[in-house]
Structure formats: structure tokens, C-alpha cells
Amino acid sequence: MSFRDALIAIGQLRDEAVISEYAIGGAMAMVFWSEPVATYDLDVFVLMPTGSGPLISLAPLYAWAARNGYAVEQEHIVISSVPVQIIPAHNDLAEEAVSEAVLLEFHGAPVRVMRPEHLVALYLEPSARTRKRLERVAALLEGDVIDRPRLDSILSRFGLALPEERS
After folding, report:
1. How confident is the model at residue 51, as a pLDDT?
2. Cβ atoms < 10 Å from Cβ of 117
3. CA separation, residue 132 to residues 29, 30, 54, 102, 139 (Å)
4. Beta-sheet pairing, 109-113 with 71-73
5. Which CATH architecture has domain 3-165?
6. Which terminal residue of the chain has fewer beta carbons within 10 Å of its beta carbon, N or C?
7. How many whole angstroms separate alpha carbon 3 and alpha carbon 6?
């Protein structure tokens, strides 16, 4: 049981049409773009199937977990000993981040990961802005992974700015 097994199971969520699409976000996505950071769980942002309506039911996710023998602990589905938090995309930025995720590989398993520019933008949302997340923004900006024109476009379209650019 491993992180790799959890990633494979997440792909099965999409293959079985429980979700439309997914992308790894949060601290675990940092592993693919920068220095790893300590985290408790795996954040998986998802697009629900069309027709889900304005109120999103997570019942299909929990039914899938039960069918596959995965335990549910608070807001997590425990897959291969990895606590996985399934997060329906909460706004247009999160939806774009999932839609434009890149397909990478982790120990031979395909995985969709949010682009670093979208991670930065999500960390800069007023409701998500914390010291810890601003440190992650700094780590991503210090690396050689950010496409600055893409980042600037995303920030502009969603009314966000980097901390040093605020007046």
C-alpha cells in the first residue's frame, strides 16, 4: 500500500465516471514542482459530472469508497493508508486549475497535477492566504518552474496579485 496506489485509485474515480476530472493540488502537488513540504493528506480537486447542479452531493464518492473497501475518516477517504481529501472545484479558478492540469508520472503511475501557476493563484486567494501558503508561493517562485506570462495572465483574470505587487 502506497501513495502510488492511492494515485491509481484516484484515476479509477474518473474512469468509473464518479467524477469528470481530477488534479492533485495542495502540498502534495508541490512534490512535483518544488521542495516537498510536510502535509497530512492528499488534496484532490475534482470536477463533478455535468448535471450535478448547484448543490454538490459527495454521496457518489462515499459510495465508491464503500464499494472499494476504503475507510472514511472525517473528511478523508483513506486509500492505501493515505488520507485523501476530495475537494469539488469551488470556483472558476479551481475549475481551470483542474481542466489545465498536466499529466505526469509517479513511480510508473499516471497522475494529473495542477500546474505551478495555478497552485500559486489558489494559494493567493483571500480565503486561502496564510503564512504557510505564502511560503509555498515563494518556494514555487524561487524555482525554475513558473511560466511568468502564464502566471501573470491567471492572476490578472482572477483579480489576484503577488504579495510584493500589492499596494
Report:
1. 64
2. 23
3. 15, 13, 31, 24, 11
4. unpaired
5. 2-Layer Sandwich (3.30)
6. C
7. 5
d(CA 37, CA 166) in angstroms, rounded, equals 26
Query: In angstroms, how far is CA 76 from the centroid of its own chain?
Result: 14
- pLDDT score of 166: 46
Task: Provide the pLDDT confidence category of residue 104 given band limits of 50, 70 and 90.
Answer: very high
The answer to whether the pTM exceeds 0.70 is yes
Domain ranges within the chain, ordered by starting residue: 3-165
How many residues are recorded in the chain?
Answer: 167
Q: Which amino acid is at 22?
A: Y
Tens digits of residue pLDDT in 64-101: 999 999 999 988 999 999 999 999 999 999 999 999 99
Mean pLDDT of 128-132: 89
Rounded to the nearest angstrom, the gap between the alpha carbon of residue 148 and the centroid of all alpha carbons in its chain is: 20
Grid coordinates of 97: 486549475
